[in-house]
């Protein structure tokens, strides 16, 4: 629980004395303090909040859109989330240039040093895996390593950032790191650095854990999304999911499916491709994560300025059977959720060699579609070709997500306009600070 945010919001609506009593009650409830200690905490919280917001400076304030993260779907791998990430890309494109950045909609960024490309990626742990630190660490490490490897890069180092709220058990740190190290050892990549902090210091009480894991890789060529070419075929490896599918299984009480996600098939397939030298012949590689095939296909089509076409039944058959059974029983669209397949886009001759190499390490891979002239993404089902679009949010894969729903807000365009304004204001603030600090 965020005591600072709670107090700040309540002080806008109630008297200080009432807020004090409400804080005391919440603190005693969560921290198991006696009233005397809870009173001291409440008084300190109120004092800090009043002091922090009693004055303002331009550097401390930010433009308020009135648009909340949840209502715009940020982090929910759909239309709203993609819009925000494109805006981040726009901001980055106006700053120091890289070979590849968020503006290119790849999950890893790339800089070039001499003849080497250095790929960098960072992924946040799944927000619903807070009480399951080992698999949270396992899946986020696998994810960031994937992001680097689909760029054609060999991973050389991993770093982590762990944040646990004030009441979280210290053992979460070690269980989480064990999950990270499991992937690192299997791939012979060292965990080299990191940070361990509390969420919000003393101001956030409870047991929630969050954080991120990053990976650095090197290569002599890259395989970005924008390189997909007309006439290419699309290959997918078997997808058993990662953090998202594990979350679905846990919160629907289907825990046996979690085990299906504990594998490094994707990394083995990528590594086999890299070691074989086929990377130089592949146009694009990606992982099916951001809103599933629906989301990734839309982004690849957008940056490559090509049309991607998928065969529905072939895509369906490449999903791990136990995972697919669970998704269909729960009426979750497998094309709108992260299944963690490796997507390879290349010419037909190269595709034959890719399939041979990937299958040699025991990983299923099939041709599921093609690239053609045009724009957008399409699905062929029952002989009928129709547009394949991301929803406002990825497929609702937990009970609470089904309640929240996937409907597009009626005021979406107005929210986008406000977000555009926030981007302009943020850029203006950055430019003002840069100008000031550049002065001799």
From TrEMBL:
InterPro entries: Ni_metllenz_mat, PurM-like_C_dom, PurM-like_C_sf, PurM-like_N, PurM-like_N_sf, ThiL-like
Pfam families (alphabetical): AIRS (PF00586), AIRS_C (PF02769)
Domain called PurM-like N-terminal: residue spans: 106-211
Organism in which the protein naturally occurs: Archaeoglobus profundus (strain DSM 5631 / JCM 9629 / NBRC 100127 / Av18)
Domain PurM-like C-terminal residue range list: 229-377
Superkingdom as given in the UniProt entry: Archaea
GO MF term (any one): thiamine-phosphate kinase activity
Gene Ontology biological-process entries: thiamine biosynthetic process
Protein's name according to its UniProt entry: AIR synthase related protein
